[in-house]
Each structure stands twice: as structure tokens, then as C-alpha cells.
Amino acid sequence: MKFKINYLTTWLMLAGMFIISSCTEILKDETISIKEVSEEINDIDGNIYKTVTIGEQTWLAENLRVSHFSNGDPILHVTSNYEWFEAGRDGIPAWRYYNDDPSTAEKYGKLYNGFAVSDPRGLAPEGWRLPGDADWEEFIKTIGGKEIQPSIAKLTFFDDPDSEPESRVISYHWILEDKGLVFQLQRENNDITSNIFDASMFNLVATGHVDQYGNFYDIDERVRFWSYPTEKFSEPFSDGSGSKYATFTMGAYPRVIRHSRAVLSKGQSVRLIKE
Q: E strands along the chain, which residues?
């Protein structure tokens, strides 16, 4: 698949309102349309984010890095493992840099526990929200084009069962390349097609995560995104460790997109979608 790039980069900002005056067409064919939108938004801290339109959806093209709720209240910044554990134990909204290193924020964003994500004060600027399972499923379906029929209840995803075996898609996942995580298809005859979606436009980087005890894992290997609402998990685990929130894990090792129940005391990335 060839990528056609035409650069038009003019944008205007007036009185805090962001007006799209032009856009850059990155890829357009019968299966997928991706546009890098020349719109930038601010969070309450003044951080500026680029946006990208993929099919019918418009996303932030960066992970969230805000440190205040939308009403201006601060979110607890944790700098030690025990403090992170205490926040999770006590249901306190919190965020953390990966490895407590502020230099990671620009590339990877911040890691938020589920109590920050689920707090009614909100993390998103006006007109934006946390994506739910249906949003992530539509994203996956769009970047796979007509060849993908996703189901978030499975770890691998199958094409039309009546299609020829050699053309049937048995899995799709991400591979780690210089541009970040790149979408890849694998067929039943083991043919692999990569670069169907260039993840650099979505700025899909493997941010890692922090567990409920404050330990860091998987930077440059996997990213875990918060998702809500979720239809698959209607009730938390019996021990209370789960939640009605879900996690979408996209990674290079293992190379799979995984949907699972989220634990609110863990720290994960936030990617917002436009309402």
C-alpha cells in the first residue's frame, strides 16, 4: 500500500477556540481514510495536543499529560511506590511519570490510576471524552479496513469464515518499528501484511504501565489504554480488584491487541476521543 502525503498546515486560534482551516490528507482509499487535522487543543494546564481523524473518529494524536481535573483541582502526583499503593488502596485519584522521570512525559504522556480516570471532575477538555469499548472497536475495524471483522471478546480476530483459507485474516497486532507501533495483519497461510496503518500518525508509542504496587513494566513494549464504558465487564471481580472499566493493550511482545478488565489501582495511558 502506498501513502500519499500532501502538506497543508495552516491553522488559526481565536479567543481559546480552535478553528480548522486546512488539513493534511495522509491516506485515502476504499478501505480507510486518515487525516492529520490541523486543529490543536489545550488542556486546563495549557498543554497543547495535536489531533488526528481516522475514518469517522477524531482522536488526540498524543497521550494525555494533564495534572489537574477540568475544574482546576489538582490530581495527586505520586513519586514513590508506597504512595502509589496507598492511593490505590484508598481510592485516591493519582498520576505518575514512568520511572518517576519527567522527561518521559512529552513522548509517553502520564500514567493515571482508574480513580483519576473515573472521577466525575473529569480529565478531558470540553468536547472530548474517554473512549469506550465501542470506540476502540471502531478504531480497530477502521485501521484494518474491509479485511477486519473485530470482536473485543477475543484475542484474535477472524475474517469472513466463508472466504478462501489463504486469504482469511487470523490475527492482527502491532510490531515495533522506528516510527512506533505499526499495525500488521497475518493470514491463515502465514502471509503477513504490515504498514496497513502507519501508527506514527496516531503517535502510538509503547508507554508501559505501573501496577497496583507501584512497579513499572513494559515501556517500549506495550501500551495500555483506559476504556469506559465497557459492555463485556458489567461487574467487578468478587474481591473488588476489578472494575467496570476495561484495558486495551497493544504491544509488540506479545504481538496482539488484548481487551481485559481493568484494575483501578493500576496506572495506564489515557487517549481521548472527540465527542
A: 12-14, 17-19, 23-28, 33-42, 48-54, 57-60, 76-77, 94-96, 111-113, 128-129, 169-177, 180-187, 192-194, 209-210, 216-217, 222-227, 246-251, 257-261, 267-268, 273-274
Instruction: Please name the residue that has the C-alpha cell 481487551.
Output: 259
Reported as a single tens digit per residue, the pLDDT across 156-177 is 333 344 444 455 556 666 666 6
Any idea what the Cα angle at residue 270 is, between residues 159 and 180, rounded to 5°? Answer: 60
Neighbours of 234 (CB within 10 A): 8
Give the pairing type, strands 94-96 and 76-77.
parallel
Tell if the pTM clears 0.85, that is, is over it: no
Question: Nearest 10 degrees: CA dihedral of 38, 43, 48, 52?
Answer: -40
Compute the residue count for the chain.
275
| 65 neighbors 59 (Cβ within 8 angstroms) | no
Pair 174, 252: CB distance under 8 Å: yes
